[in-house]
Design goal:
There is one protein chain. This protein is α+β, with helices and mostly antiparallel strands. The chain has a single domain (about 5-115), classed as Yope Regulator, Chain: A (2-Layer Sandwich), CATH 3.30.1460. The protein contains 3 helices and 6 strands. Strand 5 (about 80-90) and strand 6 (about 90-100) form a beta hairpin. The longest helix has 17 residues, at about 15-30. It starts with a helix and ends with a helix.
């Protein structure tokens, strides 16, 4: 199955989340065109060549939108971070709740860029 078919299957029955993902995908690929997509059971990874962004559904069923996860080298606070979780002494995962396409702006892309370092 090709990646597009895998993405379609991932978002089956969730057209609003799929549309939001498409808006995010377009902006991310415009900024980092060598990015590849890898569809897994619970998330979609953006790789170039290592994964720098994971997209999944929010952890609670009543939450709309998408859940973005990025890796950070140090703990950081930002109004857009729903939570920051330590993974090791030098790695943290920041989670961002993306609720609408208007939030896919330069600030969000700058936060995603932190994960590419």
């Amino acid at each position: 199955m090709d990646v597009i078919a895998q993405i379609d299957a991932f978002f089956a029955g969730k057209s609003e989340a799929w549309a939001l993902f498409e808006a995010l995908r377009e902006r991310v690929l415009a900024r980092w065109p060598d990015t590849g997509l890898r569809v897994m059971k619970t998330c979609i990874a953006f790789d170039d060549p290592k994964p720098y962004l994971y997209v999944s559904f929010p952890p609670r069923k009543h939450m709309a939108g998408l859940w973005l996860s990025i890796s950070l080298r140090q703990a950081a606070e930002h109004p857009r971070f729903a939570m920051v979780v330590p993974v090791s002494k030098s790695r943290y995962t920041a989670h961002i709740h993306l609720q609408d396409a208007d939030a896919i702006d330069e600030e969000l892309l700058s936060l995603i860029a932190l994960s590419r370092r």
